[in-house]
Amino acid sequence: MNNEFDDRKSPLSDRPGFVLIIAGVSGAGKTTVGRALAERLGWRFIEGDDYHPAANVAKMQRGEPLNDADREPWLLRLRDEIKACLARGERAILTCSALKERYRALLRPDPERVHFVFLTGSYETLHKRLTQRHNHFMGPDLLASQLETLDLPGDGLIVDIDQPVDAIVDAIMVYLGL
């Protein structure tokens, strides 16, 4: 795990509103971890995939990777939702792949109140998870393109997914100082 913060200092701002983005490639468990964390904290949960335009979903269902032009409207919608959460003083968990640093910069309108947790794992683990899930538009054939696009951050928390969900949630709670 990589933690940019001293163990004694929480990234939670004293100001109202905070959004924690659970990021990583498809199959990393963003939704599972995000829901579990939001439930434990009593925070709002926002599924980033729900904000994809229909054209993006159709493209991924055809097995075609998204490019920057495809991702931009989606990221802008997520940024608007993040800004609204902060303006309302809400605390929320949002899931989003956030594969590139420039995507993360767009999603971080307030660096003090928007932080990232990256879920990482081996290709084999991720691929196995993708082949086992059903009713999702993102198939295992797009994993390689996501891994090629991935630019891991130098800040925030990076957690290996090869452990139980509760252990991952516990690590995030420690990161948050809770």
| CATH architecture type | 3-Layer(aba) Sandwich
Indicate the multimeric state: single chain
Query: What low-confidence regions span 5 or more consecutive residues with pLDDT below 50?
Result: 1-8
What is the mean pLDDT? 87
Rg (C-alpha, Å): 15 Å
Distance between the termini: 17 Å
Number of helices: 7
Shape: globular
CATH 4th-level superfamily: P-loop containing nucleotide triphosphate hydrolases
> What CATH first level would be assigned?
Alpha Beta
Short description:
The protein is an alpha/beta fold.
Helix and strand arrangement:
Blueprint: E1 2-3, E2 18-23, H1 30-41, E3 44-47, H2 54-61, H3 68-88, E4 91-95, H4 101-106, E5 114-120, H5 123-132, H6 143-149, E6 157-160, H7 165-176
Parallel strand pairs: 2-4, 2-5, 3-4, 5-6
Antiparallel strand pairs: 1-6
Helix pairs in contact: 1-7
Description:
The chain has a single domain, classed as P-loop containing nucleotide triphosphate hydrolases (Rossmann fold, 3-Layer(aba) Sandwich), CATH 3.40.50. Helix content is 43%, strand content 16%. The chain has seven helices and six strands. It has helices at residues 30-41, 54-61, 68-88, 101-106, 123-132, 143-149, 165-176, and strands at 2-3, 18-23, 44-47, 91-95, 114-120, 157-160. The chain has a six-stranded mixed β-sheet. α1 (30-41) crosses α7. 34% of the residues are buried.
Key phrases:
Rossmann fold; 6 strands; disordered N terminus; globular; 6-stranded mixed β-sheet; 178 residues; 7 helices; alpha/beta
